[in-house]
Amino acid sequence: MLVSGVYYGASPIKQTAMKVSVKNGEYVETKQVPYDGSTNYSFSDGGMTTEIVTYNKDSENGIVSFVCNRMKDAIKVTYLGKKEVSILMSENDKKAMFETYEFSSRLLEIEKLKKEIEIAQIKIEYLKDKMSAQ
What we know:
It is built from two helices and seven strands, in the order βββββαββα. By secondary structure, the protein is of the alpha+beta class. Strands 3-2-6-7 form a four-stranded antiparallel beta sheet. A three-stranded antiparallel beta sheet has the order 1-5-4, with no helix packed on it. Strand 6 (76-80) and strand 7 form a beta hairpin. The longest helix has 43 residues, at 91-133. The protein is elongated. The model has no long low-confidence stretch (mean pLDDT 95).
């Protein structure tokens, strides 16, 4: 599962990380993703700047779990860079993250089961061969 931090505004903030927090002060922050033109890139169009930073399983640093475990809380998302910009995460965005996480988890479980089935089939064939050799 990938998470993208998308900033759109009149001036660049040079985003390299994202923090999600709740009112009581608890927070989780992604790892830094330096500008590379790929997982961290930006462009300007019509005088407005768009910055997109993509966080993978190694760099998201637990923000998905944090959000999924606090669905009822107001969650503030802060884009961190040369400047900071904060927004409140919408209910739709929280729901989308939760449902995507659930879907991703199910896909991982299916892949794990497929591998276990493959191993079991190899063992069955091995045992059949041993039995027929006797």
